[in-house]
Every structure is written in C-alpha cells, then in structure tokens.
Amino acid sequence: GLEDEFEEEQSGNVKKEDLEEEPTQSDLYIKGQAEQPKGDLFAEGQEEEPVENISEEGQIEESVEEIEEGLAEEQLNESVQEEEVEEEQFEEEQIGGSVEETGEQLEKEQREEAAEEQPEDILQNLAEPDFELLEYLKEYSENLYQHSERIAILSEKAAQAIGGNAVLAKAGGFYHEIGRVEEDENYIEAGVRIGREYGFPEELLEVMRQHSTSSTLPKSVEAAVVMLSDCIISTSDFLTKSGKREKLSNQKLVTSIFQNRLEKGNLEQSGMTDEQIQMLKEFYIENTFTNV
C-alpha cells in the first residue's frame, strides 16, 4: 500500500508507482462518519413549465354585401357607403392582428433567448452554498460537504485559469460525490439519478459521471479539472493522515499525479491542449495548498 511504499523510500521522494491508486473518498470521509438520513431523502424535483404554444392569428374573412340590380340610386349609394365602412373595419382589424402577431413573436423570441441562457443560470443557482441540496449534504456529512466545497472552489479557479467554464467546474466539484448520500458503492449512478430529479443540466451530469479515475474518461475540460482537483486534494489528505505528507513537496505531489494521469491516458479525451495541461499543472502547484 501507499504507507509501506513510503516507508521504503529513503530519500523522501515518491516514485511513479507510489500514486498508481489514489485513495477513494469512502476511505477518507464516509465510513462511520455519516448518520443515515431519516424519512424521505428528497422532495420531488421541480420541472420546467412548458413553454406555451403561440396560437396563430385567425384569418379574418371579408364579407361584402352584393348590390342587387334594380335598386334605386339612393339605395345604391347607401350600399356603397356601407361597403366602404366594412373595408375600413377590415383594414383596422388586419392592422390590429399584425400588431398582436408581432408582439407574440417578440415574446416568443424573448422566451427562446431566456431558454438559451437558462442552463448557465441553473448552474449558478446550483453552485450557491445555500442551495437546498447542498444544505442537505452538509447536514448528512460535514466532512463530505467540506471536501466537496474544497474541490468546488479549487476547480472553479483552475478552470478559469485555462479558459474553461468556471461555473460548471464549481458545480461539478460540489456535486461530484452527491450520490454518497444514497449509496456509497454506486455513488456515481446515484448522483446522476439525484441530479436528474433536481433538473441538473446534462453538461453537469456528464462531469459527475466522468470525474472518477475508475469510471468514464473525462470528455471535457471541466470534468478533467474536477478529476485532478479530487486526486490532488484526496492524496494530500491521505498522506497527511498517515504522517507522510511532510516528506513530499507540493510540486512533487502535483507533478506525480499529472504524470500518472497522462500515462494512463486519463486526459486524452478532455479536449485540453498540451499548453493547457502545462498551465493547469503550474496552477495546482502554486495554488492548491495556499488558497484552499
């Protein structure tokens, strides 16, 4: 294990194989620390209200009274006047209908624009510490909440440093292990199920699926960032508890984890360039253990 291998190291440095398997969060935070939740676990998620269909303006049929032959001249003039009045009314109705249609079209466009912005707004709301699901996580396990908060804050700054979606990375950090409130062994599947109940955007569910080194490879910058943040923080905490952390510099710890992840191909599908990976490594070395 990591402990025996560190005792065998005379120089205090860590070999590549030392970090082949990072500790799981259940080893660090969960066993024996969380009380079982009472009663129903979650309320039903709120679903978006469907956008109402905009009914099309009905067509106005023009009815023109026929002028009967043989009418007297006076009757003919009256009929012509009535016809002119009807035409004016028809034009007014057409103008009114056009204005109404224009207003409805504008409202539709505004709703579509709001729908396009909605995922980002949802992410921002989910990443607020007072969101109900995060409050429940804190009540369930203070240790798990604090770990998730550290990953969230670090991932937010890391993603921002390389041009990623900082809000998505932050939300991914907060909820990367939310499934543990239901079950520990299959916590990723449980987390995705919980996320769907709360209307999580699909991009956030993907980060939750892909952050673990034992599951699907990260397919986005944000999923890779959450994975690396989790690996670095978890490994450091494990070494601290085992009394081995002082033997390892911050640079050596981060460099070893990056080398391990690269050799195992964990970053191949993340979409990050070599330059971004190097920038990310430097960010973690300089910021992980000073700002978090």
Element layout with pairings:
Layout: H1 2-8, H2 25-30, H3 73-126, H4 132-140, H5 142-161, H6 166-175, H7 187-197, H8 202-210, H9 221-241, H10 250-263, H11 274-291
Helix content: 55-70%
Structural class, judged by helices and strands? Answer: mainly alpha
Mean pLDDT: 76
Count every helix, treating DSSP H or I runs of 4 or more residues as helices.
11
Proportion of residues in β-strands: under 5%
Globular, elongated, flat, extended or rod-shaped: what is the shape?
elongated
3D structure, described in words:
Helix 5 runs antiparallel to helix 6, helix 9 crosses helix 10 (250-263) and helix 10 packs antiparallel against helix 11. The protein has eleven helices and no strands. The protein has 292 residues and is an all-alpha fold. It has helices at 2-8, 25-30, 73-126, 132-140, 142-161, 166-175, 187-197, 202-210, 221-241, 250-263, 274-291. Residues 1-20 and 25-72 have low confidence and may be disordered. The protein is elongated and about 95 Å long. The two termini are 27 Å apart.
Write out key terms for the chains shown.
292 residues; mainly alpha; 11 helices
In short:
Helix content is 61%, strand content 0%. The chain has 292 residues and is an all-alpha fold.
